[in-house]
């Protein structure tokens, strides 16, 4: 759907409210990125621990518990649980990929120390 209204035709109060909402969205996006970065720092450490102790990169039972937990959190937050599950599955797949890479590097003797900063 397109609009014939140009930005200059929109009331100043509407433009200000739109800018305020977009600033809020931008702040939330920044927070999400920073939280994901922290999450991946922790999962990298898990990957190194698993590799050192020859544990499998994936833990299907934990993943199932996490998905169920996230679906409940999503429902309580009025977020579509199917969307939340897709999002977590995407993250889990990336974490497993990292864990597989860490395990391979450990086996080949090229593992670097986990980033603990």
In short:
This protein has 117 residues and is an all-alpha fold. It is 73% helix and 0% strand.
Question: What does this 3D model show about the protein?
Answer:
With 117 residues, the protein is mostly helical. It has helices at residues 12-52, 60-76, 81-107. Mean pLDDT is 90; it is low at 113-117.
Q: Helix/strand-derived class? A: mainly alpha
Main pleated sheet: none
Q: Determine the mean pLDDT.
A: 90
Radius of gyration over alpha carbons?
Answer: 21 Å
| Sequence stretches where pLDDT stays below 50 over 5 or more residues | 113-117
Helix content: over 70%
Global morphology: elongated
H/E series: HHH
**What is the subunit arrangement here?**
single chain
Number of strands: 0
Quote the distance from N terminus to C terminus: 48 Å
What percent strand? Answer: under 5%
Individual helix count: 3
């Amino acid at each position: 759907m397109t609009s014939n209204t140009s930005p200059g035709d929109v009331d100043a109060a509407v433009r200000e409210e739109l800018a305020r909402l977009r600033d809020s969205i931008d702040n939330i996006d920044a927070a999400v990125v920073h939280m994901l970065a922290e999450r991946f720092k922790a999962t990298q450490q898990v990957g190194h621990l698993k590799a050192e102790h020859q544990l499998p990169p994936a833990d299907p039972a934990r993943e199932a518990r996490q998905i169920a937990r996230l679906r409940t959190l999503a429902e309580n937050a009025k977020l579509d649980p199917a969307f939340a599950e897709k999002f977590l599955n995407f993250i889990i797949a990336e974490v497993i990929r990292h864990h597989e890479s860490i395990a391979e590097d450990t086996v080949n003797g090229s593992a670097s120390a986990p980033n603990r900063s």
